Fold this protein.
Amino acid sequence: SGTDSPKPPSSARPAMISSGTSALARWTCSATGRILSSAKRRNVSATSVIAAAKATDDIVGVRSENLSPTADKMRRLMHHGQMFQSHALHFFHLCAADLLLGIDADPAIRNVIGVAIKHPDLAVQGVMMRKYGQEVIKVTAGKKIHGTGAIPGGINKCLTVAERDSLIKGFDGMPGLDKMIEWAQGAVDLFKGYHKDHANMLDNFAVFPSNHLSLVRKDGALDLYHGVMRAVDTDGKKILNDVDYHDYMKHIAEQTKTWSYMKFPYLKSLGKEKGWYTVGPLGRLNVCDFIPTPLAQKEFEIYRAYSKGKPHNQSMHMHWARLIELLHSIEVIKDLLNDPDILKDNELTRKGTKQSEGIGLIEAPRGTLFHHYRVNEHDQITMANLIVSTTNNNEPMNRAVNTVAVKQMGGQKEITEPMMNAVEVAIRAYDPCLSCATHAYGKMPLEFKLKDADGNVIQVKRK
């Protein structure tokens, strides 16, 4: 347990945090232990495990920025593998059907199978890019889901030469690194070409002013693994100016509302009504100053020039930003695979003086992810607070849905399937978890009520 203090009886043991083990929730008798253990089981992505590990780095006495070079780079490799596979999944499997086939296309073909039939080469690329990212996760975390590679104070394995070479050259029919970079660049070019032909739709769909928040590197660069917190308003003016994320509670509060189980985070300096913000690819590219890889930086300059240097507040530009990040992640993966530190096994973990509290932030594919734990003298978790990406994007998603619903259905006598899908398209731009639900086979748990000017319900439509 990382401490010599007496241990309580086994029947009273809540979740324990151990230095040198990946089990962040070993005993789950208490309510807080069950919450943390359940969260770890559900949020199986490498990113969620790394966020938990970063919080527990604090508790074992070593800040994440002070890990060994091998641990830092292996975690970054793991995380960018997750970003690469998740962004490929989200765009090619969940969103491409709406763009390539049309929001109003027949629902029977408006899905990944329809994309595969009409655009077989793109479908194969999407599948193989996701598979490549999963292989990166496997060799860094031990397995593709429920990985154990990131542990308090570091990692539990480095890469072997064979593992590294397989990712660079490819294996078992899997193309290698150069092909992945080519395909990622092609995905960005695909979106730019689509945008050129459909700018009116993409630029005017679910548009509203928003603040934006993310981590950035201390020099203002995009950094998906570690950094300081920055927030800007809808015009790009800084609201949070590169603050230590360990002080997040000084700057961010969470509101509850009677009609939702989800919390509503906001910036304290702006208050509940005006302090909400957007996270994720759109937020990150609105907040950072530059991208520290050459191909992605070139695309970022085009992206920024389109908005004349101002933040993008168009929900559908989330896809544009996501694909630029896809390209950035594979560039980072290339750099890390060619770094000799990922092969060194002489210092996988570090530790220092035990602390009673830990906070870890990371940029997950969907946006900024907060993990915050407190422990007692027995290493029992006494408090766990998570602000996940979906929660951070709660208010902007609500506004996107409302904006599209009003525009599509306002003044109409009947709700049609394309109108309902337009609302789903707004959700899909923000959150892959909800996107999976909205593309599920069968009936959707989605209900629309059309009311007249007096508030009388004139139509109910379920999907």
Remarks:
- Residues 69-100 form the longest helix (32 residues).
- The first strand starts at residue 150 and ends at 151.
- DSSP finds 17 helices and 13 strands in the chain.
